[in-house]
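Students often ask why we bother encoding 3D structure as a string. The short answer is that it lets us treat folding as translation between two languages. Here is a chain of 502 residues written in the first language.
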Amino acid sequence: MTTGSTTVRVAIIGTGFGGLGMAMQLQRAGEHDFVLLERAGDLGGTWRDNHYPGAACDVPSHLYSFSFAPNADWSRSFSEQPEIHAYLRRCATESGVLDKVRFYHELLAADWDEDAQVWRIRTSGGDLDAQVLVSACGPLSDPIVPKLPGLETFEGATFHSASWDHEYDLTGKRVAVVGTGASAIQFLPQIQPKVERLHLFQRTAPWVMPRHDRAYTRPERWAFRHLPGFQRLSRTAIYWGRESYVIGFALQRRALKVAELIARRHLARSVEDPELRAKLTPDYAIGCKRILISNDYYPALTQPNAEVVTDGIAEVRPNSIVTADGTEREVDAIIFGTGFHTTDLPVAHRVRGRDGISLAETWSAGMQAYRGTTVAGFPNLFLVIGPNTGLGHSSMVFVIESQVAYIRDALRRMDEAGLAAVEVEPAVQEAYNAGLQQQMKGTVWTDGGCASWYLDASGRNTTLWPRFTFDFRSITRRFDLASYRRERAGERAGDVPEGAHG
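And here it is in the second language, the structure alphabet:
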């Protein structure tokens, strides 16, 4: 292994909310020896890549932003992709971290050097070493395209919602949409009026709630800009409103009956045809899969040029799709709204800890981490939006800020104790995850009667946090050094006596 051409204290992978949040807080803490590694030529992560028609957030704007970098200029209660992307660019520029970004530096490999106590990092733009590696890739980074029989023979256009082909004109085309997730219900109503024929291939009907979105008035925008307390109050109200959802999802499932009633009424008002309504009615508990919000998804599917297909796809031919019942539908384009690699993160294959074991190998039986942030066997590796940190009800930015605070405190404690490396004790990690999975039992996400992207191949929920977000904030408020193996420069794990610096 060759030594990298650059040595930094902290290397951060990714420039979405997680990477930028980490960098901005390091900057604020006076830590300037860091870089951000970005595989693309622009920053923004999910909000750079997902620029499909209608792309928007389903968490209210004032909660889906950094608490330490409030944005008074949101135009709507639910922000659209261009505004969120512009906000992230502005955060990077105004904080000064933009100068720390190395664009076109895709991570190819990161290996822990036991003797030197550094991460040896290889990227498409050059090599470097780092004492600390922070992976902020996020779970919505690498799209999934299903392996449909014959897909490679299709002669029309094919693309995923996360890599939308704006050069391809859908006007007058026969279009197949595969998938009914959060992206599909946003872009489908945008393309339906343009296409000649729209075939939605639905495996599972989602629960859809009304979208209470509106433009902010001029007085409101003035107040957001000139009365900081007004914006904080708005954010606080949104936060606690969202936290109340956990009662139904995880504590008292009966509370979800109200949400289910609203969703069923929304469907009934939007879709008069009983046959179509039956196709669009979910057969699992609301909340088991991600609850979607839309006012135009159902109306788009009632139009004469739209069709909902519930039979599975048996084969793709050069100019058509054949379903399991033998029906062949001619199509000019196939658009996939089929989600992302959330439980089998591609970056996990590129990160190797002690003894050259990859994160993917360590997670072969399922992802797990300690407090969603550190993994036994991987010294000085920190994850932002790691296992069991996802949310089914609120803003991931809140979780990101919690993890960033934990990591920043870890660096401070390492400096104070003169440590070169920290690594969570395996027994601590195991006990934490056993307790977490115990908490997961009985929640709608685990026992709601559906197969969702929250669950891994063995049926374990390795993506979501099972309780209130303020509980997560509490356990990440301070870095608990006593739960970690510690190394000084030139020493091996365990050489520092237990409790010596705890």
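Translate back mentally: Residues 396-417 form the longest helix (22 residues). Keep this in mind for the problem set.
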